[in-house]
Amino acid sequence: PGVPRHTNRLINEKSPYLLQHAHNPVDWYPWGQEAFDKAKTENKLIFLSVGYSTCHWCHVMEEESFKSKEIGEIMNEHFVCIKVDREERPDVDKVYMTFVQATSGGGGWPMSVWLTPDLKPFAGGTYFPPEDGVHRVGFRTVLLRIAEQWKENKDALLESSQRILEALRHTSEIRVQGQESPPPAKEVMDTCFQQLSRSYDEDYGGFSKSPKFPTPVNLNFLFTYWALQRTTPEGARALQMALHTLKMMAHGGIHDHIGQGFHRYSTDQHWHVPHFEKMLYDQGQLAAMYSRAFQISGDEFFADVVRDILLYVSRDLSDQAGGFYSAEDADSYPTTTSREKREGAFCVWTAEELRALLPDPVEGATEGTTLGDVFMHHYGVEEAGNVDPMKDPHQELKGKNVLIRRCSPELTAARFGLEPAELGAVLQECRQRLCSARARRPRPHLDTKMLAAWNGLMISGFAQAGAALAEQGYVSRAAQAAAFLRTHLFDPDSGRLLRSCYRGKDNSVEQSTVPIQGFLEDYVFVIQALFDLYEASLDQGWLEWALHLQHMQDKLFWDPKGFAYFSTEAGDPSLLLRLKDDQDGAEPTPNSVSVTNLLRAACYSGHMDWVEKAGQILAAFSERLQKIPITLPEMARATALFHHTLKQVVVCGDPQGEDTKEMLNCVRSVFSPNKVLMVADGDSSGFLYRQLPFLASLERKDGKATAYVCSNFTCSLPVTSVQELREKLSP
Questions:
Q1: Looking at residue 2, what is its pLDDT?
Q2: Which of 25, 379, 381, 630 is buried most deeply by CB count within 10 Å?
Q3: Is residue 520 part of a domain?
Q4: Taxonomically, which superkingdom (predicted)?
Q5: What CATH number corresponds to the domain at position 467?
Q6: Cα 344 to Cα 22: distance, rounded to the nearest angstrom
Q7: Average pLDDT over residues 642-662
Q8: Would strands 449-451 and 500-503 be described as parallel, antiparallel, or unpaired?
Q9: Alpha helices for 471-586 (secondary structure H)
Q10: Phi then psi for 12, rounded to 5 degrees?
Q11: Mean pLDDT, to the nearest integer, of 380-408?
Q12: Number of H helices, E strands in the chain
């Protein structure tokens, strides 16, 4: 492409998504005072478009409408047009998505909303095609109709927007009712399990027919439910549901068998044809879930998937300074000479291509068998392509194959007369060849924005994997990323987190002219990460920082009247609503994770008012937890931890001593959802001893590493054998 004909204000932004729109003929503004002032001065409506850089339909709407000179002229004449990256500004996204969902019954991205000059929404939707069709009004028509309405019926529009805002305020309020207390754990856990069990897909795992999302929050709930009910039939079913889902996902096309990592979701029931973008938050949470599956089952299959995810993130989503990038796009150019991007082009194969890349005969197999024969059979490759046309509305995948493991290794080996070990080597050779071939294709766009919250989820993934798999390299990578956050996404003067930073020129790390302050989710996921990192590394500096951030979170976001945390700080006049998220989705809602964070913080600090706060959050969400806990599985899980009281597992000993390491490995290898781990190393000047005076009374027995299992700072008899400790750790 030659020199762009248009350049708008977005050229001065750092967000990759905003920069993608910097050469549209639309006179885009970023969210901010300049745009608001223009709308008021010129008495114009605002058109707000919200999306993110790896969003397929956002690209479609840009190609069809925002790159159109004619549509651009209509937008510029009648509206002040604002572009928002939802990953940079989840606060803005949430306010207007609440409106779109309430008024249209659905939501998604790109989100298109029309606002009065004082930012009140009155019309909205998601993707609009450019022109009118049989079933849908086109974007151009909508723009002209709304402009006409503003000219003819301004007062009615203003009145309607005020009514809408009042209704939203009322319906989105979450607060404690009267003297409500935390709901009973057993009832909440049982109801949540029954609701998940009813929506569970017995054949393919997961919790809907299609589309199918990984939803780590459901799996985390099921693991905890099993741990607390392991002798019951319900407990056994919960574990089977979680492990089967994780296995089917790993076999499916949602898992990238060549380039590692997981795509965002599957468009079908079988985990086969995905939407191909890869999100950092999925990799972080799934690394943690597969680590737990390995802890519980001891099955190396799950450990291999953990290694696969972390290899992908280390190679493709890592900044050299230590942070993690946000996402990889679904769309890319099929070849270096292509003019048009296609979804999944980087990941899919024709049968012909595979044959050409894998022509060699396989030694020891049935005569005439090639590498291609074995690979294509194992991964469900078909001559005409293996994608159901119903799942490919734009025919972008016609004749292509999305790899999905169709057979067990034993069946594939038997079919071609191979031993299972020989088959493993054959498939490994095939995957390496395809990986090299894929490296010659144009790569999808990489969103190099680095977000505190998602980095927190990924640090937890590396730390938990390092602890469960006893892989020190993963713990070191988690520590490197935490140090990156402290350097680039924390302001030591104010003691506050920042939301985002960006890969700049020459691979430097850049910040916006006016940095975006951290939101509730940034604090919550970073605090969780620092607790996980302390348990994996025993570096008390991470613990100290976590407790500092918890105090700051309380100060900025706590609602003293209605309880629980607001998603945003007070005091931003451009935000019409201060909301509390009430649904665990692709990521858990911050209040859900806060309950567990507060319980852990109390165990490490002795501040029991944090336990009280955890109970107040549960009280604020009590009605939802008792009626539809399936919408808050992470908070339902936290309800059980609140009522069971966390076990403080204290290991007394020299952290470098072999006997201490053996004890620590035992604690880390057991899945026990209601434990916190700490080491009493005898250094009474250390941070933990200053926080928890009771540690000074604990000592080693007979000069050996000794463990104590404590509850509310009251400890059991000392334990010096690993076997005895293992028994004490089961809930």
A1: 63
A2: 379
A3: yes
A4: Eukaryota
A5: 1.50.10.20
A6: 25
A7: 94
A8: antiparallel
A9: 472-488, 520-537, 540-557
A10: -90, 0
A11: 94
A12: 27, 21
Place of tokens 């597992």: 649
Q: What mean pLDDT do residues 448-472 have?
A: 98
- Residue 673 sits in the same domain as residue 528: no
| 549 pLDDT higher than 80 | yes
Query: What whole-number distance in Å separates Cα of residue 158 and Cα of residue 630?
Result: 38
Pairing of the two strands 79-85 and 45-51:
parallel
Judge contact between 125 and 110, C-beta under 8 A: no
Cis peptide preceding 110, ω within 30 of 0: yes
- Cβ atoms of 292 and 344 closer than 8 Å: no
pLDDT in tens, 420-441: 999 999 999 999 999 999 999 9
Is residue 411 domain-shared with residue 511, that is, in the same domain? Answer: no
Tokens of 389: 């046309």
Give the three-state DSSP class for 122.
Answer: strand
pLDDT for res 5: 84
* 440/512 same-domain check: no
- Which is it for strands 647-652 and 675-680: parallel, antiparallel or unpaired? parallel
For residue 106, is pLDDT > 70?
yes
Q: Same domain for 121 and 164? A: yes
- Residue 653 sits in the same domain as residue 673: yes
pLDDT at residue 480 in the model: 98
CA distances from 141 to 65, 74, 146, 545 (A): 12, 10, 9, 53
HSE, CB side, 13 Å, CA atoms: give it for residue 292. 24
What's the pLDDT at 254?
Answer: 98
Summarised one tens digit per residue, pLDDT across range 289-326 is 999 999 999 999 999 999 999 999 999 999 999 999 99
Mean pLDDT over residues 492-507, rounded?
95
Which one-letter amino acid corresponds to residue 358? L
Q: What is the pLDDT of residues 601-640, one digit of tens each?
A: 999 999 999 999 999 999 999 999 999 999 999 999 999 9
Q: How many domains does the chain have?
A: 4
Q: How far is the C-alpha of 611 from the C-alpha of 601, rounded, in Å? A: 9
Peptide bond connecting 211 to the previous residue in cis, omega within 30 degrees of 0: yes
pLDDT of residue 712: 87
Torsion of CA 276, 277, 280, 281, to 10 degrees: -80
Residues 441 and 513 in one domain: no
Mean pLDDT of the chain: 95
Q: Is residue 546 part of a domain?
A: no
- Look at the block and give the residue holding tokens 């000047």: 685
pTM over 0.85: yes
Tell me, yes or no, whether 23 and 144 share the same domain. yes
Region 94-118 average pLDDT: 93
In a domain, 655, yes or no: yes
- So what's the pLDDT on residue 133? 87
In this structure, are 452 and 438 located in the same domain?
no
Output phi, psi for 651, to 5 deg.
-105, 120
**DSSP β-bridge partners for residue 324:** 318
Place of tokens 């009281």: 645
Q: Of 127, 106, 138, 136, which is closest to residue 56 (Cα–Cα)?
A: 127
CA–CA distance from 45 to each of 50, 123, 151, 159, 437 (Å)? Answer: 16, 11, 10, 14, 50
Give yes or no for a contact between 378 and 392, defined as CB atoms under 8 angstroms apart.
Answer: no
pLDDT confidence of residue 104: 87
| pLDDT value at residue 731 | 64
Q: Which two tokens stand for residue 350?
A: 């024709």
Q: 520-537 and 540-557 are packed helices; what angle lies between their axes, rounded to 10 degrees?
A: 160
CATH for 142 = 3.40.30.10
**Does the pLDDT at position 716 exceed 90?**
no
The answer as to whether 203 is a domain residue is no
Q: Which pLDDT value is given to residue 135? A: 83
Task: State which of 515, 537, 559 marks the end of a domain.
Answer: 537
Range of the domain at 284: 280-327+446-537
Whether 346 shows a pLDDT value over 60: the answer reads: yes
Give the integer Cα–Cα distance in Å for 266 and 201: 14
State which of 522, 537, 552 marks the end of a domain.
Answer: 537
| DSSP run (H or E) holding 532 | helix 520-537
